[in-house]
Amino acid sequence: MKTILIIDDDDFIRKMLASVIQKAGFDVIEAPDGETGLKYVELKNPDLVVTDFKMPGISGLDVLTELVRSHPELPVIMLTAYGDVSLTIKAIQSGAYDYIEKPIKNRELIEAIHNGIQASIQSKSLTRIISPEARKAIEDSLLAGKTPAMREIFKNIGRISLTSVNVVITGEAGTGKEQIGRLIHFSGITREQPFIALNCHASNEDLLQQELFGFSNINNNVSGKDRLGKIELAGDGTLYLDEFQELSPTIQSELLRTIQNGEYYKPGDPQPVKLKCRIIAATRKNIEELVNEGKFLSDLYLRLRIFTIQIPPLRERIDDIPELVQNLLTKLNRKLNRKVVKVEDGVNDILKKHSWPGNIRELENVLMQAVILSQGDVLEKKNIILNLVSPPSLIDNTTRLVPLSEIEKEHIKRVLDALKWNKMEASSVLEITRPTLNAKIEKYGLAPG
């Protein structure tokens, strides 16, 4: 019978966990603190450790760090009521087998214990080829989410960030694909290296090719100035390709050869350039369909998707909205120099009922407008204006189709009216420059009133 060591300074929780684990068919050892828990590991040789994170004296993270050093095959499951994105990733990076938030679901805990023990049995049957090493702490992130899908994503980021493997990130527009890419980059071994982003949706193939691979006029036999490509600029860091499905067949072939050979030739230069960076490729399209239709190279896709992260749309993670609101308010207060730190009762209920076709980007825009309209430190219901993506007035009972310019015109007018024609604040909400806003006001003949 396998033995589980429980480390928790809360007597009630520790006894409750012991009862649940014993009923599942395991022997149980209890330790009231981290120091005692480490002693029991040496004296009683448990098969798995379940430890609380926040404890007086030696914390759960300290326990984990010591066990990874001294007993690398011993699986550790971390428990905490203070979970967040950075803590989840830190626990996984530090070597935790799994991470479970309180209140604990018995079924989830027992499943994690069974899986951890099986993983330990397999680990002991193999020869160690990589020794444990210290992990760097991650930078703060505005990403949030405690729904099962998001928690699994953050756990995977903790694992991916300790490597330089290529990653494909999929998700609808506005779900935060670049944020996930940045979190992978800045969480682990590449954090001190460059993060270079490139939007692959370009009408000019030659321009995109130069953006990616660079250009050299070493012999002065072609026109144009020398430039470093994004691959070269990324160095040992990360190249983030946004909407990579838009790459032309020619560039797809060149990128495939570059990944296969580990080097490429810059146009105009006979000397090869080494490929050193990791590639994170993001898309909102179904790449498998494009591959099946012959519109995207299957070999390139296989080279890019060493690991895949699929981000769920906001409508499928509605329970994350309250936490997202708090994190986005922190970001918006800093950006807009405001101090909106409280949320009126009912605001989150309103936000949870919306379908969010624009996902987190739409949520951020709605909150930005509400913060600008707020007169104090409270985010009020009256300032929550939804349906900014598809104003109801543009769709009648016959589902009338309208030009994009008409949607843009009405959206700009609604934002300007809501902000009493403060063009500086309207530019910020619309994420365009003042000259661009003035040009659109003139183009559409907009006026106050």
Walk me through the topology:
Blueprint: E1 3-7, H1 11-23, E2 27-31, H2 34-44, E3 48-52, H3 60-70, E4 76-80, H4 85-94, E5 98-101, H5 106-124, H6 148-160, E6 167-170, H7 177-187, E7 195-199, H8 205-213, E8 214-215, E9 227-228, H9 230-234, E10 238-242, H10 249-261, E11 263-265, E12 272-274, E13 278-283, H11 287-292, H12 298-304, E14 307-310, H13 321-336, E15 342-343, H14 347-352, H15 359-373, E16 378-379, H16 404-418, H17 423-430, H18 434-444
Parallel strand pairs: 1-2, 1-3, 3-4, 4-5, 6-13, 6-14, 7-10, 10-13, 15-16
Antiparallel strand pairs: 8-9, 11-12
Helix pairs in contact: 2-3, 4-6, 13-15
Task: Describe what this molecule looks like in 3D.
It is built from 18 helices and 16 strands. With 449 residues, it is α/β, with parallel strands linked by helices. It folds into three domains: 122 residues, Response regulator (Rossmann fold), CATH 3.40.50.2300; 163 residues, Rossmann fold; 130 residues, Orthogonal Bundle (Helicase, Ruva Protein, domain 3), CATH 1.10.8.60. The strands form five sheets. The protein has a five-stranded parallel beta sheet, sandwiched between helices. The chain has a five-stranded parallel beta sheet with strand order 7-10-13-6-14. Helix 2 runs parallel beside helix 3, helix 4 crosses helix 6 and helix 13 packs across helix 15. The longest helix has 19 residues. About 7% of the residues have low confidence.
